[in-house]
Specification:
- The protein has one domain.
- It has 1 helix and 4 strands.
- The chain has one helix at 46-58; strands at residues 7-8, 20-24, 29-33, 41-44.
- It has a 4-stranded antiparallel sheet.
- The N and C termini lie far apart (38 Å).
């Protein structure tokens, strides 16, 4: 399996160190804590990731 290309999520702010990183495969979106690169990650289907990011950008926090 090829090494994943992780990048800082555009949904992470530019302030502080509280960031998430994202990697994309042909069938999944992976999300991890940028401070714990060897730790666990969440796996989303492309459809569930789209629903999550759509909700996150429209929800009042």
């Amino acid at each position: 399996m090829a090494e994943l290309a992780w990048f800082k999520s555009s949904y992470s702010g530019n302030e502080g160190t509280e960031c998430v990183e994202v990697a994309e495969t042909t069938s999944a979106i992976l999300v991890r804590d940028s401070k714990d690169k060897s730790g666990p990650h969440l796996t989303f289907t492309p459809d569930s990731w789209q629903a999550f990011t759509t909700y996150a950008t429209t929800a009042e926090v």
